[in-house]
Design brief:
Distance between the termini: 56 Å
Number of helices: 16
Number of domains: 3
Oligomer: single chain
Strand order of the largest sheet: 6-5-4-3-2-1-8-7
Structural class: alpha/beta
Shape: globular
Largest sheet: 8 strands, parallel
Bound molecules: iron/sulfur cluster
Number of strands: 16
Strand content: 15-25%
CATH class of the largest domain: Alpha Beta
CATH architecture of the largest domain: Alpha-Beta Barrel
């Protein structure tokens, strides 16, 4: 199925296997495998299901050389079984893996926030623990040499590169709260990377900058877009809110971050990140493309009646309901004084769903604050923890704390930045265990989910005394 949306922007066409991106091509949908990459049959099956649902690309995490070997087998099995769609190798830290993956995948993603650093060194992210090597010119030179090697490998194999920046991957000192600081740091870094790649006459580049907060994502992506424009570069943009969570809340967060950028006309490919199966991400992404720019207002004399935004939709499922509700809200966002939202959805069997969407939309947009805000990573091969189950436990036990943000992460990759801005956070350590953080500081290692919940509850009760 080909979905298209009018786009103002004339981005550069980037070849990604048999499915080019940007230019006049429709907006591409992508997702990411949540399996252990080394489990070839499970990963192949998840990719097949995703492609059958409408994914144009599937991204696969490559944390080690075993996963890289498995990627070759996954690629072969997919092609043989009639799935020639492009695969994207997701690489953090290791420039060596990125260089090798260029010969297997149609596109690689590297994260400028952690490219070329070691996971262990990156984990020690406080200002005091900064390795002097980070600041040294020699280390920087080495980093740029490594980037050049990766770029040359991609050029040789006709492989595209996404510079995928994520504020969650920044060290605490680089982020310092939900300010523009982290985004600007990343954008400067990415601009430098682009210069090096262009010097090597490489231009199959895709750019993204993501955050777990939708408003921060929109702001950062617009800033990135303006920066590219100012330097007369038109590389395609990949859009998405990272770690938006699960269920209705995750969908609302994703919609609030993606729809404004679709409406700007600057998105070339989108990824909805949910702590759920890839097929759910793709189904919702398709709804977002269909809903962008539409409004579903209840007939009333003024669009916002008595400060109540009233919506009416014929949506038949919750994905359509959420994307239409957020699209309508965004169309009304310029109107002042929205104090309440109601949604009429006669075709949704359970009316409580429409009520919950209205409630969550008010919470996510700051109109009201009734519960805890959860950030959770979508999971990938880098975690051995069942993230859906872990999130269910936390959401059930810690739901009712207005103004509190809890981050639930599958590994250290995006841990530092998220722990820096969340009130509490957990990062999966070994199977079934988590490390617990409070305001960015580690307070317990290797706790069970239940122990972590108790610890956070105790801390919250002390705080309220
Ligand atoms: S934070 Fe989650 S999605 Fe990101 S790399 Fe780690 S396990 Fe994968």
């Amino acid at each position: 199925m080909t979905l298209s949306l009018n786009r103002e922007r004339n981005s550069r066409e980037v070849v990604v296997g048999n499915t080019p991106l940007g230019g006049a091509h429709p907006i591409r949908i992508q997702s990411m495998a949540k399996t252990d990459t080394r489990d070839v049959p499970a990963t192949v099956q998840q990719c097949q299901q995703a492609f059958d649902t409408g994914a144009h690309y599937m991204r696969i995490s490559i944390p080690d050389t075993h996963s890289l070997k498995a990627l070759e087998k996954i690629k072969n099995k997919l092609v043989v079984s009639g799935y020639p769609q492009p695969l994207i190798a997701d690489i953090h830290y290791s420039s060596d893996l990125a260089e090798k993956a260029a010969g297997v995948a149609e596109k690689i993603r590297i994260n400028p926030a952690n490219f070329g650093s070691s996971p262990v060194r990156h984990a020690h992210y406080s200002k005091q623990n900064l390795s002097s090597q980070y600041a040294s010119g020699r280390a920087n030179e080495q980093l740029m040499d490594n980037l050049a090697a990766v770029t040359r490998a991609c050029k040789k194999h006709g492989t595209a590169i996404r510079l995928g920046g994520n504020t969650g991957s920044l060290r605490t000192d680089q982020r310092e709260g939900h300010s523009q600081r982290g985004s600007i740091h990343l954008i400067n870094k990415m601009s430098k990377y682009i210069d090096i790649m262009e010097e090597l006459d490489f231009r199959d580049i895709v750019i993204s900058i993501k955050a777990s907060h939708p408003a921060e994502t929109v702001e950062a992506s617009r800033l990135m877009y303006r920066t590219l424009q100012q330097s007369e570069k038109n590389y395609p943009l990949h859009i998405g809110v990272t770690e938006s969570g699960m269920g209705l809340s995750g969908r609302i967060s994703s919609a609030l971050g993606i729809l404004p950028l679709l409406q700007d006309g600057i998105a070339d490919t989108i990824r909805v990140s949910l702590t759920e199966k890839p097929v759910h991400e793709i189904a919702f992404a398709k709804h977002l493309l269909q809903s962008a720019g539409t409004r579903f207002l209840k007939t009333c004399k003024s669009e916002v009646c008595n400060n109540i935004l009233e919506m009416s939709t014929q949506a038949r499922d919750t994905d359509a309901l959420v994307s239409e509700a957020v699209s309508t809200f965004l169309a009304m966002a310029g109107k002042p004084n929205i104090h309440h939202i109601t949604i009429e959805a006669p075709n949704i069997t359970d009316q409580r769903v429409a009520e919950e969407v209205a409630l969550l939309l008010m919470e996510h947009t700051g109109i009201s604050s009734a519960g805890t805000r959860f950030i959770s990573c979508p999971a990938c091969a880098r975690t051995s923890t069942d993230m859906e189950e872990l999130c269910r436990v936390f959401r059930k036990e810690l739901a009712g704390f207005p103004g509190i943000t809890i981050a639930i992460m599958g590994c250290m990759v995006n841990g530092p930045g998220e722990m820096a801005v969340a009130d509490y956070g957990v990062i999966a350590s070994s199977k079934g265990k988590v490390n617990v953080f409070k305001s960015g500081r580690s307070i317990r290692n290797n706790a069970t989910a239940e122990e972590a919940v108790d610890l956070i509850k105790l801390s919250l009760s002390e705080k309220s005394r």
